[in-house]
């Protein structure tokens, strides 16, 4: 199965290299995506541009792919389910949840000169970054790509009720499956509260398991794809 890999804010497709290398021997074809505005040099990219890249990869897959979104890109993966519900085998959400219809995609941090730069490690102290050593933090910050305002401030539009039929697996890094289940059960994540098939998988990592636990993450994603 094709497994489309979408990194979160400030990341390009290369962040998935070690996950991709571990997925191939497990019988799947990893397809890391570099999104417009997050690796192609564009600062004018929009959320619609990023979604178009994801949908093009879905349409190019030979069968039904699994779409994997990390962090903010969990919403991009869910937008793919909204636009192509009949084409997806499953959606995997790593360290995040889909944003609801009508809400900004990822207006989490200050936008300056048309982009949202990486804000430094202050907002991520604690479980998010506990497993990143000083070297990994320096490497991440040096490679971080400022996200265009047109992406961060883009408004999410969801319309097709068939998205709730697409199976979902929530991969839980800095939070536990029990905490995620409580959020879904309490209605804090309305999109997943309405989804008909939601599973949860635990991984012992911070917010970026593709960096600190790539082999285990690949195993979890392969198992999710095998069960699709």
Automatic annotation (TrEMBL):
<dbReference type="InterPro" id="IPR029058">
    <property type="entry name" value="AB_hydrolase_fold"/>
</dbReference>
<dbReference type="InterPro" id="IPR000073">
    <property type="entry name" value="AB_hydrolase_1"/>
</dbReference>
<dbReference type="GO" id="GO:0016787">
    <property type="term" value="F:hydrolase activity"/>
</dbReference>
<feature type="domain" description="AB hydrolase-1">
    <location>
        <begin position="3"/>
        <end position="219"/>
    </location>
</feature>
<keyword id="KW-0378">Hydrolase</keyword>
<protein>
    <submittedName>
        <fullName>Alpha/beta hydrolase</fullName>
    </submittedName>
</protein>
<dbReference type="Pfam" id="PF12697">
    <property type="entry name" value="Abhydrolase_6"/>
</dbReference>
């Amino acid at each position: 199965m094709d497994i489309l890999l979408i990194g979160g804010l400030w990341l390009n497709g290369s962040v998935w290299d070690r996950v991709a290398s571990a997925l191939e021997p497990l019988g799947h074809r990893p397809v890391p995506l570099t999104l417009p505005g997050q690796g192609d040099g564009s600062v004018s990219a929009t959320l619609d541009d990023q979604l178009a890249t994801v949908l093009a990869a879905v349409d190019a897959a030979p069968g039904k792919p699994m779409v994997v979104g990390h962090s903010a890109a969990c919403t991009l993966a869910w937008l793919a389910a909204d636009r192509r519900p009949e084409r997806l085998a499953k959606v995997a959400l790593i360290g995040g949840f889909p944003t609801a219809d009508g809400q900004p995609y990822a207006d989490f941090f200050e936008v300056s000169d048309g982009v949202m730069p990486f804000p430094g490690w202050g907002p991520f102290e604690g479980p998010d970054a506990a497993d990143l050593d000083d070297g990994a933090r320096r490497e991440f910050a040096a490679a971080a790509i400022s996200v265009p305002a047109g992406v961060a401030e883009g408004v999410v539009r969801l319309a097709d009720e068939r998205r709730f039929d697409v199976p979902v697996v929530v991969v839980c890094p800095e939070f536990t499956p029990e905490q995620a289940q409580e959020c879904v059960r309490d209605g804090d994540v309305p999109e997943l509260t309405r989804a008909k098939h939601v599973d949860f998988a635990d991984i012992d990592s911070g917010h970026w398991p593709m960096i600190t636990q790539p082999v285990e993450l690949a195993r979890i994603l392969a198992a999710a794809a095998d069960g699709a």
